From TrEMBL:
Keyword Metal-binding appears in the UniProt entry: yes
Organism: Peptacetobacter hominis
Positions of the Flavodoxin-like domain: 1-129
Recorded superkingdom: Bacteria
Protein name as it appears in the record: 4Fe-4S ferredoxin
Classification via InterPro entries: 4Fe4S_Fe-S-bd (IPR017896), 4Fe4S_Fe_S_CS (IPR017900), EFR1-like (IPR047964), Flavodoxin/NO_synth (IPR008254), Flavodoxin_dom (IPR026816), Flavoprotein-like_sf (IPR029039)
Record's keyword terms, sorted: Iron, Iron-sulfur, Metal-binding
Length: 245
């Protein structure tokens, strides 16, 4: 069983590809479905995006509540560039026998423009090759740690990650512009159901994972985050993967 969390589809896509290769199935941890019994699973896998060089809190609390098993366990962290100590820290929450990071297109459009088409496609193609290799290693139950940590990991996965979870996950800066037609895609898309359409416009509740699915997948490009995202392109894997949607 492969548990995943995904904002813009990268981690979902990686989880599904690995599942296909190793003959397993996936479970979206943000779905409202009951957590399956994992006692007799061959594998327990976790696939998630890195957020400020840490695993998303939603994945950490999910793993904390998941029963411990004797199966082979693995974690795969998708990132735009590097993951710091995200996987090392996650493995303290739930024992993981093998750990990998995979570079995918960057969806953090609050920080910078997303990758251009050429770079996004190159990253996805490289990831496909890596996923084959990773899947083979998982099947062989190989104990591995292969992660692009980058530099200053102890600072990035320490104080910077703490700061992100404490201060940067506010919904205050989200707003819909006049381009919004009240279609409700953001409301339906939000993995934690924090968005509600009121008087034809989205309104954000307090809680937010900062997955940025709302901004990146708005069909009208009508959602912004303060001034940071104005004029920037959007990203979701469906733009580059035909069978994704
Ligand atoms: C809030 C936030 C923080 C991020 N932090 C990092 C980071 O620290 N390092 C990095 O390389 N990529 C970072 N990214 C990029 C994502 O981890 C990356 O694009 C990931 O593959 C997105 O996965 P998803 O499509 O499954 O949501 C961040 C993205 C978001 C939304």
């Amino acid at each position: 069983m492969i548990f995943y969390f995904s904002g813009t589809g990268n981690s979902k896509w990686v989880a599904e590809k690995i599942a296909e290769n190793i003959g397993d199935r996936v479970f979206d941890i943000s779905s409202k479905e009951n957590i399956p019994d994992v006692e007799n699973e061959n594998y327990i896998g976790f696939v998630f995006p890195v957020y400020a060089w840490g695993a998303p809190e939603i994945m950490i609390s999910f793993a904390q509540n998941l029963g411990k098993v004797d199966s082979f366990t693995f974690a795969v962290c998708t990132c735009g560039e590097n993951v710091g100590y995200a996987l090392k820290k996650f493995s303290k929450v739930y024992r993981t026998d093998s750990n990998y990071s995979i570079v995918m297109p960057n969806n953090y459009i609050v920080g910078s423009d997303p990758d251009n088409k050429e770079d996004a496609i190159r990253k996805i193609k490289n990831a496909e090759i890596e996923i084959k290799e990773i899947s083979g290693e998982i099947k062989n139950r190989k104990y591995t740690y292969r992660a692009e940590e980058g530099s200053f990991s102890w600072i990035k996965s320490g104080i910077v990650n703490l700061g992100f979870n404490k201060f940067a996950r506010s919904t205050k800066s989200f707003y819909a512009t006049e381009k919004c037609i009240g279609c409700g895609v953001c409301e339906r898309n939000c993995p934690i159901k924090t968005i509600h359409i009121e008087n034809g416009k989205p309104v954000w509740g307090k809680e937010c994972r900062q997955c940025l699915k709302c901004i990146n997948e708005c069909p009208m490009c009508a959602i912004e985050y303060g001034k940071a995202t104005v004029g920037r392109n959007r990203y979701n894997i469906g733009m580059y993967i035909e069978d994704e949607k």
